[in-house]
Specification:
The chain is 31% helix and 19% strand. It has 8 helices and 8 strands, in the order E-H-E-H-E-H-E-H-E-E-H-E-H-E-H-H. The protein has an 8-stranded parallel sheet. Helix 2 runs parallel beside helix 3. The model has no long low-confidence stretch (mean pLDDT 97). The chain binds D-xylitol-5-phosphate and zinc ion. Zinc ion (ZN) binds next to strand 2.
Amino acid sequence: MNNPIKISPSILSADFSKLGEEVIALEKAGADYIHIDVMDGHFVPNLTIGPEVIKKLRPLTKKVFDVHLMISPVDNFIKDFSNAGADIITFHPEATSNISNTINLIKKEKKKVGISLKPNSKIELIEKHIDQVDLVLIMSVEPGFGGQKFMPEVLEKMKNLKELIDQKKLKTEIEIDGGINFENCGKAKRAGASILVSGSTIFNENQGDLKKNIGILRTHK
Ligand code: DX5
Ligand code: ZN
């Protein structure tokens, strides 16, 4: 079953001096989700924003906040990000000692659950949980920074994951994140992604024409 393609712009590539305006502009430009990259300088070698910033952004838009937690340990912060207004909370399995417990903590908050695989992390790491989560976030760059080069080797893994999901007749969606651009977005869709994250392509291509860039990623075959 093919889900409609959704575009989730990453605000990591936005102008941090005016994040509120950027989120409003993304909604106007037709974004389906807002991808919010949270980094703690421990799980990844970069630091970005926390729940307080998300709390301030929340009232500006009704769009889904697709929160990507690159933090560890992750459990202690689930409630904070839920209260701040996250709609989807995605974590990395390496950031918890008990994957099922982390999934249940997010479900208890009545939020959608995402689990993320870094480029070198195998499907086996999460295989027994794919029926418990709403989405799997396939990283096509090493987490930590925007503007990196797409790693095409993850497409094979994504195809295998999609086969597994279809075999089990699950509704689990696949989101791909990292280096997505106009050249590789078609391949990513064909390999099974129904949610495309993009930061630098959306904010930098076509003189930063958000609406045009979101439209190309959505329609490009
Ligand atoms: C990287 C983040 C990605 C990144 C995407 O750790 O998880 O969401 O911001 O940005 P681009 O599209 O520029 O790779
Ligand atoms: Zn991300």
